[in-house]
Design brief:
There is one protein chain. The chain is α/β, with parallel strands linked by helices. The protein contains 11 helices and 7 strands. Helix 3 links the parallel strand 2 and strand 3. It is globular.
Length: about 270
């Protein structure tokens, strides 16, 4: 279950997801400003910590060796946990004056590796990283990221990146599976929803899952969360999967990490 900025956060929806829908994967970030709110929702839900998979992310204002370690502890405190199941570098661009993005990423990842070795983070990874970013980490560091989380929906299907991650044992997680609602009105998605007796959202989520993506839908409404979970009682035929695969046009509905490539090459 994805979460969002404080203005787009619903305590009741999170509690409902945990208590009524069986959701156990919570994805958040320091940037969203809701870590401390999630602590309250988790406590109210009654779900045991060991039954949850909690992911949060390091924002670029905290990049660097010492800052990363401090930020991780602060996120744990806000979430009310002793460890994180997954900690991600949120964005490849570092915004540190006087240092290259590559240099800062390497310093940051070294701290992430130590957090992993110490057990404070059970898994470590990155978000919005392209192949070029991952190749640099491969050259500069020791531990391969366990996860790369990036935008993934019918209009943004970065298959080359997915294949690269799989070749290195990096799990690919996809956010924005509905393209922030843009995919729900596409004629092909609507047609398949009618064919399978499902909603357009369920078609998009199921398509993503069948493509082998760890899919992270997000909603503030209990009924939508329930809808998003009901995607394991049907299978989209392969020829229909190919129809959705063919909708890829490269558009981003979130951040575009390729815009940082020019800075990397400088």
């Amino acid at each position: 279950m994805g979460t969002s900025h404080q203005g787009g956060y619903s305590h009741d929806a999170v509690v409902h997801a945990l208590q009524k829908c069986g959701i156990r994967h919570i994805d958040t970030a320091k940037r969203y400003g809701c870590e401390y709110l999630l602590q309250k929702a988790i406590k109210e839900s009654g779900v045991k910590r060991e039954d949850l998979w909690i992911t949060t992310k390091l924002w670029h204002s905290d990049y660097g060796y010492e800052n990363t370690k401090k930020a991780c502890l602060e996120s744990c405190e806000r979430l009310g946990v002793d460890y994180l199941d997954l900690y991600l570098i949120h964005w490849p661009d570092a915004h540190v004056p006087g240092k290259s993005n590559r240099e800062v990423r390497a310093e940051t990842w070294t701290a992430m590796e130590e957090l992993y070795e110490e057990g404070l983070c059970r898994s470590i990874g990155v978000s919005n990283f392209l192949i070029s970013h991952l190749e640099q980490l491969k050259e500069d560091c020791v531990v391969t990221p366990h996860v790369n989380q990036a935008e993934y929906h019918p209009f943004q299907r970065p298959q080359e990146l997915v294949d690269y991650c799989r070749s290195r044992g990096i799990v690919f997680e996809g956010y924005c599976p509905l393209a922030k609602g843009e995919a729900l009105t596409h004629p092909s998605v609507i047609q398949l929803a009618k064919k399978y007796g499902k909603t357009p959202a369920q078609i998009c989520i199921r398509w993503s899952i069948q493509n082998g993506i760890v899919t992270i839908p997000k909603s503030m409404k209990a009924e939508r969360i329930e809808e998003n979970c009901k995607v394991f009682d049907f299978t989209i035929a392969e020829d229909n999967v190919e129809i959705l695969n063919g909708l890829h046009d490269g558009r981003h509905v979130s951040w575009d990490p390729s815009l940082t490539v020019l800075l990397i090459l400088m």
